[in-house]
Prior knowledge:
Layout: H1 3-8, E1 10-13, E2 16-20, H2 26-32, H3 43-50, H4 56-79, H5 85-89, E3 93-99, E4 103-111, H6 114-121, H7 130-143, E5 144-152, H8 161-175, E6 180-185, H9 191-197, E7 201-202, H10 212-215, E8 228-233
Parallel strand pairs: 5-6
Antiparallel strand pairs: 1-2, 2-3, 3-4, 4-5, 6-8, 7-8
Helix pairs in contact: 6-7
Residues 35-36, 149-152, 157-163, 185, 188, 190-191, 193-194 line the site of coenzyme A.
Amino acid sequence: MSEQNLINGWSDTAGVRIRQARATDLPAITELVPLAAGVRLEDVLRDAVTADIAGAALRSGLRGGAGAFHRHLAEQFARHLDDPLQAYLHAALVLVAEHRDRGIVGTLIAYPPINVAEDHLQLIPAHADRREVQKVVMLGAIGLAKIKAVAVAETERRRGIGAALLKRCRQVYIHCGYLLLYGAMPPTPGLSAFYRRQGFDVMEAGAPMDMWMVFGVHSTFLPGAGERFFFRRFQPSP
Ligand SMILES: CC(C)(COP(=O)(O)OP(=O)(O)OC[C@H]1O[C@@H](n2cnc3c(N)ncnc32)[C@H](O)[C@@H]1OP(=O)(O)O)[C@@H](O)C(=O)NCCC(=O)NCCS
């Protein structure tokens, strides 16, 4: 697991490399992402890939471990005190699966979801000082990552590409010290089995998630209508 791997790719399945997305991959990603129902590539993420900001903190983490990842993000928070989303983007992971002959055949998008941290701000006392607010926003950025989309071209499915994308995503976030990787899936037949096979727990449709292990306070997050959460927890590093 190294920064060079993330940039140049891992050869996980026959003829396919999994690597970080580049600006030139964006048209292919834009086409693939809608295969995951209701998802699109947000402009802010597109810009972050173009500017090579997306994943910059994760690359620091792959170079120097969780400590380096945390330092990178802390610097970004200090630089963007009034716009923490800019720091969050440094922890966004956009992966592609590139086939030797057929080009980009799959993609995965994951990032710490800033809205979850913002919702937790309502759980801290109204008189709390600014440092408490910043702490919650930072905990969300370093502890929790959401898999927003995994999509593989229809003609390339059932060859392990989806599994390889998920595996590399999981490894990158574990390496950087994350505690929880999760997502919300639509009721597509076969999807629960797919995520379970990759080691995720799949919840009942509509069941809420509690993010206490990240924020240290209990909370209730509901999936969208008809969706169910899937998640994987990791042990905090000593
Ligand atoms: C889910 C998805 C990414 C899996 O990609 P993949 O490269 O085929 O995945 P793998 O080859 O690693 O695993 C295949 C397994 O996925 C499961 N699976 C997931 N969705 C499936 C579907 N719609 N039909 C059949 N099997 C499905 C099956 O268990 C299959 O295993 P099998 O071949 O032994 O039956 C791909 O089906 C896809 O892009 N679907 C549309 C987008 C989507 O729903 N994304 C997930 C929600 S964000």
